[in-house]
Inverse folding.
């Protein structure tokens, strides 16, 4: 059997930091409200001219370095993003050109905040089927570009960044199982209503029914955790680390309670990063790997929930 294993991680946050106090000056909000309702304290935002592929390239190079690989060793590039530089070519192709890699498949995956678990799951299957040996999987988003900065109910929630992993073929897992889901019945809860289909290009800003989405997120994530444990015959206590999508501290705490995991075993970056969409899990993973919390051999549960709605998990031994 061929499996995939995480060989290296990387992460990049843009230099510009915007605190809750900074936002108080531009929208009708308070630092106290944002902290209490979300756990967010600050976020990194792209500067003029800085794009999704800029962030992705930084994270990718760090992941390659950590894996001890050269870009030329890559035979698959998958980028999860909802904020590509252009409609096309894909951000994965732009990244491929920046890395001076030629010929291997490169494509984007669009599953909003669940994008990284989708992308990792797809890359894992390429490796399991023998179609790739060394895959670069990136979650990169410049969500600030698609926010309505006058809408306090959304603009305070998001940040920009990129996280990357290199997965390589291995004799033992690595990635143990992946679980992906979507339910378009909930498509109106989080969306950009404008687009090519209706010719409404002006209305290209995020809209969210936050309260309803919150409830669906908590129940859905609870189910995906149960599904992942049951599929692998595991007990809750077998999980060493929960690496959740970072949308809201209250959602993360609810999932940790479900797993009976103390918060010390949950990687939480939402205070400093806010919700970086597809980047949030690989950024959190990279942070906890680099600061020495996550060690080789430990069992990781990554789970995400996003617009679509989409959700999923990846269980992996690091
Ligand atoms: O990553 C994709 C998945 N994303 C999610 O799952 C996000 C899920 N939703 C959430 O995280 C939360 O629902 C929010 C953080 C978006 C909102 O928290 P909430 O506790 O559900 O608040 P709410 O929407 O029920 O709003 C409560 C009040 C409202 O005022 P009234 O109607 O009670 O007078 C809002 O107008 O808070 C008001 N409000 C704000 N006040 C200050 C909404 N946004 C703000 C704000 N500052 N930024």
């Amino acid at each position: 059997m061929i499996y995939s294993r995480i060989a290296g991680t990387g992460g990049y946050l843009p230099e510009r930091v915007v605190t809750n106090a900074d936002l108080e000056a531009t929208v009708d909000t308070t630092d106290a409200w944002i902290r209490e309702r979300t756990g967010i304290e600050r976020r990194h935002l792209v500067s003029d001219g800085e794009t999704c592929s800029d962030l992705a390239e930084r994270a990718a190079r760090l992941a390659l370095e950590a894996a001890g690989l050269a870009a030329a060793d890559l035979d698959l590039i998958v980028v999860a993003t909802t904020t590509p530089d252009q409609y096309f070519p894909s951000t994965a192709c732009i990244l491929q050109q920046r890395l001076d890699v030629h010929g291997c498949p490169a494509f984007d995956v669009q599953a909003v905040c669940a994008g990284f678990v989708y992308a990792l799951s797809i890359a894992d299957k390429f490796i399991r089927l023998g179609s790739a040996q060394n895959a670069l999987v990136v979650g990169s988003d410049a969500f600030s570009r698609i926010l309505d900065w006058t809408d306090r109910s959304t603009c305070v929630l998001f940040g920009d960044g990129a996280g990357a992993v290199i997965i390589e073929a291995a004799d033992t897992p690595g990635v143990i199982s992946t679980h992906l889901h979507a339910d378009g019945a909930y498509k109106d809860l989080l969306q950009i209503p404008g687009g090519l289909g209706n010719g409404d290009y002006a209305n290209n800003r995020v809209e969210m029914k936050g309260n309803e989405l919150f409830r669906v997120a908590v129940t859905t994530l609870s189910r995906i955790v149960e599904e992942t444990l049951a599929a692998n015959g595991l007990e809750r206590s077998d999980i060493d680390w929960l690496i959740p999508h970072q949308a809201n501290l209250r959602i993360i705490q609810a999932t940790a309670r479900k797993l009976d995991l103390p918060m010390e075993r949950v990687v939480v970056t939402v205070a400093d990063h806010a919700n970086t969409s597809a980047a949030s899990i690989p950024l959190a993973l990279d942070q906890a790997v680099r600061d020495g919390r996550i060690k080789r051999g430990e069992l990781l549960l990554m789970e995400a929930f996003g617009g679509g709605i989409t959700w999923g998990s990846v269980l992996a031994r690091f």
About this structure: The mean pLDDT is 97. The pocket of oxa(dethia)-CoA is lined by residues 29, 33-34, 37-38, 113, 152-153, 156, 190, 210-211, 213-214, 217, 247-248, 251, 275, 305-306 (CB under 6 Å). The chain has ten helices and 13 strands.
